[in-house]
Structures are given as C-alpha cells and as structure tokens.
Write a structure and sequence with these properties.
- By secondary structure, the protein is mostly helical.
- About 55% of the residues lie in helices and about 10% in strands.
- It is built from 7 helices and 5 strands.
- The chain has helices spanning about 15-25, 30-40, 50-65, 70-80, 90-100, 105-115, 125-135, and strands at about 5, 10-15, 50, 85, 125.
- The strands form 2 sheets. It has a 3-stranded antiparallel beta sheet.
- β1 (about 5) and β2 form a beta hairpin.
- α4 (about 70-80) crosses α7.
- The N and C termini lie far apart (about 45 Å).
Length: about 140
C-alpha cells in the first residue's frame, strides 16, 4: 500500500507511491528501473522513502526518457480531463481535493497560481500557458 508522510515542511513517498505517481501522470517506467533509481538516490525501495528533492529527481529522470512535448501534453490532460483546452480554479480545486491537500494549498494560493501563469488574463491556464510554465520558455 502506498504511503506518504507529509508535514508543513516535508513530504516523503515510498516505492508504491512513486509507481502510482508515475502511472497517474500517464508515464511508464519498469519497476526494476524505479528500484534502481531509488537506490541511486540513496533510498531502499523495500524500506525507505524519498524526500521531495529525491522524488523530483526521479520524476525528472522518468520525464527525460520520453519526448518532452508528449510528456507535457499528457500532464496537461490530467489537469483538463474534460478536454476543454484550459485549466481553471475549479480544476485545481478538484486536484487538490483528490490529493488530500486542501489544508496545505489554500484557495488564495491556487488563485495566485492561475494568475501567474495565465498570459491572456482570461482566468484560465491554456495549453500554451501550461507548456510555457513547464518548459520555462515563451512559446510564441
């Protein structure tokens, strides 16, 4: 059973949670590759957990093994399951609730996220905004 420990300052995830995260993001990785990566990062897959930095490094490795644009678009579709082509505050609230993070991400923070990445000011993050955010570039 996947386990995660979260406090206001830290979050740790175990092997099963890592696999679930990879699958939830529409990515794929062999179990043996995930175990090997966890060992390289200093965590024992059978008994240890990854902190946020280790988890982030592992996920970057998984993403790096895919075509970057395909990976980013697959991630966008997770936020926009209805296929509207945009992510709004309601979508973010749903995701935060699904992850059980309501106490850690208040509505004001979600509003700020949308405002920060919304380039055209319509109150939503469209696909271009999302790709720009993930790539750190300006698609024009």
């Amino acid at each position: 059973m996947a386990q995660h420990r979260m406090t206001a300052r830290s979050c740790e995830v175990d092997y099963d949670c890592v696999l679930a995260s990879i699958k939830a993001l529409g990515l794929s990785a062999k179990k043996s590759e995930v175990r090997a990566a966890m060992r390289e990062l200093g965590a024992c897959p059978e008994t240890g957990a990854l902190d946020f930095d280790m988890f982030s490094e592992l996920m970057q490795r998984v993403y790096a093994s895919r075509d970057p644009l395909d990976a980013m678009l697959a991630s966008f579709r997770l936020f926009d399951p209805a296929g509207h082509g945009r992510i709004n505050i309601k979508d973010l609230r749903r995701i935060v609730a699904d992850l059980g993070l309501e106490d850690h991400l208040p509505e004001e923070d979600l509003d700020r996220m949308v405002q920060f990445f919304d380039r055209n000011g319509d109150g939503e993050v469209d696909e271009e905004d999302f790709l720009r955010m993930l790539s750190g570039t300006s698609f024009q």
